[in-house]
Amino acid sequence: MNLVRAELYEQAIHYEKGSFITSTGALATLSGAKTGRAPRDKRVVKDDVTGKELWWGKGSPNIEMDEQTFLVNRERAVDYLNSLDKVFVNDQFLNWDPENRIKVRIVSARAYHSLFMHNMCIRPTPEELEEFGTPDFTIYNAGQFPCNRYTHYMTSSTSIDLNLARSEMVILGTQYAGEMKKGLFSVMHYLMPKRRILSLHSGCNMGKDGDVALFFGLSGTGKTTLSTDPNRYLIGDDEHCWTETGVSNIEGGCYAKCIDLSREKEPDIWNAIKFGTVLENVVFEEHTREVDYADKSVTENTRASYPIEYIPNAKIPCVGPHPKNVILLACDAFGVLPPVSKLNLAQTMYHFISGYTALVAGTEEGVKEPRATFSACFGAAFIMMHPTKYAAMLAEKMLKHGATGWLVNTGLVRWKLWFRKPNQVSIHKENH
Ligand SMILES: Nc1ncnc2c1ncn2[C@@H]1O[C@H](COP(=O)(O)OP(=O)(O)O)[C@@H](O)[C@H]1O
Ligand SMILES: C=C(OP(=O)(O)O)C(=O)O
């Protein structure tokens, strides 16, 4: 339970094929067949309460399952975990706002998953661990074991099942670690708005004068890169809450895309890849153990997960005052949007709700090339309620605190690269 990094390294290297220490001390791991999220395999239990509270039907990310099927998958996962010689248990926290902290327990079969969540969630002190008690939410990650695809509601051997009434999530048939962190984010997208707190799929940083900026963006479109700015304090790279008093990071770590990572362009992320960092699905030279960040042979979605304090100018505790700027990162693969636009509130809401951007290759299963998409709230895969619920709260907060909206096109730089290849020009035509 809550093993330290060194022990998790030893367990991973000893028992998990494809685990190695890189030249800078990071733990390189392989996530197996799945190297990105599988949104079509995510299920949410629809019951009397969630049937009314959540967004269902066309456009919604919530695909229903019933309680009985959840229990079938849960039993399968728990039986699998019980059949192993050992499992890993992490008891940790979500949310740096002490009044809205959530206790989570992650039960998993792989040291890689335990180290990943150790990095991504907030790490308790020994005293906090002593007094941890019953968790508010539990994940049973049996990702190496498939679900039975002939079970009702299943369409493949992968299933990520969320049961809000039981406060539990079950993972079968995928070892991609991002499912755990994004699964918990979906939970926060449910729990926080019920407390009138706005949950945000955004990075967040703060200038020397205390000016806070939010960076909304779909997965892989620049939240981590742009919030990790050497000239500003990093509050968090991906998931935040906006309350009556200001912003708080939900997580205790960052999850950076590292395809084509370079020391020159992203020095802080480069330097964070050291002992304790999980490097997923990267390729390295066998003898020097130097990572080749340009190598996409396992996936384009190579990732680094590190504790937030590995970034030198992280602001700890990860909280800040009300945001002054709300930046919507649209990764426009097709050259439609200008580089930077200042938005009024109505325009901000329009872009927030329609969420025009691109699904970046590799972040979701089956996405091999950048694909134009409309992703409500710049994270449609993770919202639980109708987008207008989040949008109305955002509008209210921006108005109250005088925040300015911006639309920044992070696809522009890549767009030039993408369009060099003739086969990708045809995607452009298909999508128009
Ligand atoms: N204009 C740009 N802005 C931000 N990132 C860019 C840009 N052009 C290329 N990139 C690359 O895009 C990726 C963005 O990934 P990341 O910041 O981890 O996304 P997110 O945190 O939103 O999931 C990185 O690999 C970064 O180097
Ligand atoms: C980890 C993911 O997203 P992000 O890059 O936004 O953290 C993901 O979508 O699997």
Automatic annotation (TrEMBL):
Domain of life where this protein originates: Eukaryota
Cited SUPFAM superfamilies: PEP carboxykinase N-terminal domain, PEP carboxykinase-like
Biological pathway: Carbohydrate biosynthesis; gluconeogenesis
Keywords from the named record: ATP-binding, Decarboxylase, Gluconeogenesis, Lyase, Nucleotide-binding
Signal peptide annotation: none
Record carries keyword Cell division: no
Recorded catalytic activity of this chain's protein: oxaloacetate + ATP = phosphoenolpyruvate + ADP + CO2
Entry coiled-coil feature ranges: none
Family matches, as CDD domains: PEPCK_ATP
Record-linked Pfam families: PEPCK_ATP (PF01293)
The EC number(s) this enzyme carries: 4.1.1.49
Enzyme class: lyase
Family: Belongs to the phosphoenolpyruvate carboxykinase (ATP) family.
Protein name: phosphoenolpyruvate carboxykinase (ATP)
Organism: Salix suchowensis
